[in-house]
Amino acid sequence: MLTPERHKLIMEIIKEKKVAAIQDLVEGTGSSESTIRRDLVQLEKENKLLRFHGGAQLAGSKSEETTINERSLASLNEKMAIAKHAAGLVQAGDCVFLDAGTTTYHMVEHLRKDILVVTNGLSLIDHCIDKDLETYVIGGKVKPKTNAFIGKGAIDGISAYRFDKCFIGMNGIHPDFGYTTPDPEEAMIKQTAIHLSNKAFVIADESKFGRTSFSKVHDLGAAAIITNAVQDLKSLSEYRKLTQIEMVKTT
């Protein structure tokens, strides 16, 4: 098989599987492991994929980012269970940062009243007010696709505060590439919130594991993870070597 044909087949396999092990590519192309490894290096240089230990996946893209409405419909039961559990970790007198997102939105209805909330989520503001929560908004430029405040104004705003806890959403959670999200400006807000918090939590359903996106936020050890599941026990063990994981039942 000629190299261009093999590269095309490799990309077809990865597009179908989303994440492909080297052995999958060896079997799918009938090539040697050393050949596949060289191919992956070349394809990564062409920005067609991302390599990780033992395999590869499609390179993340900002174009993959979903709207707030699309995200609100995805994995709704899982997100609501995760949100309820996360809200239960907030204690009396806490100052918490809630990231713009659908799971943090669902957290609000379960939060106790004797706390202070800071957010960059446009969708969360009215919800917090309706729940009679003391609420601060960091300001900045509004990003319509995710209803998030971003930019220099948002960074300046959030930097004025310190948090007992922060709750952050992510598009990708990967043992090698850490926490990632499509937009570099949103990544900066998430990263800053983690740095300003005594305890940071990433709240994400199982679909985010093994995925990467365009902008790195932090290594996995920077925040504990609250999720409904991890796809298999081997993966769970790998992630638990890197960070704390709290599992939430969704039934």
TrEMBL record:
<feature type="domain" description="HTH deoR-type">
    <location>
        <begin position="3"/>
        <end position="58"/>
    </location>
</feature>
<dbReference type="Pfam" id="PF00455">
    <property type="entry name" value="DeoRC"/>
</dbReference>
<dbReference type="InterPro" id="IPR050313">
    <property type="entry name" value="Carb_Metab_HTH_regulators"/>
</dbReference>
<dbReference type="InterPro" id="IPR014036">
    <property type="entry name" value="DeoR-like_C"/>
</dbReference>
<keyword id="KW-0805">Transcription regulation</keyword>
<protein>
    <submittedName>
        <fullName>DeoR family transcriptional regulator</fullName>
    </submittedName>
</protein>
<dbReference type="InterPro" id="IPR037171">
    <property type="entry name" value="NagB/RpiA_transferase-like"/>
</dbReference>
<keyword id="KW-0804">Transcription</keyword>
<dbReference type="GO" id="GO:0003677">
    <property type="term" value="F:DNA binding"/>
</dbReference>
<dbReference type="InterPro" id="IPR018356">
    <property type="entry name" value="Tscrpt_reg_HTH_DeoR_CS"/>
</dbReference>
<keyword id="KW-0238">DNA-binding</keyword>
<dbReference type="InterPro" id="IPR036390">
    <property type="entry name" value="WH_DNA-bd_sf"/>
</dbReference>
<dbReference type="InterPro" id="IPR001034">
    <property type="entry name" value="DeoR_HTH"/>
</dbReference>
<dbReference type="Pfam" id="PF08220">
    <property type="entry name" value="HTH_DeoR"/>
</dbReference>
<dbReference type="GO" id="GO:0003700">
    <property type="term" value="F:DNA-binding transcription factor activity"/>
</dbReference>
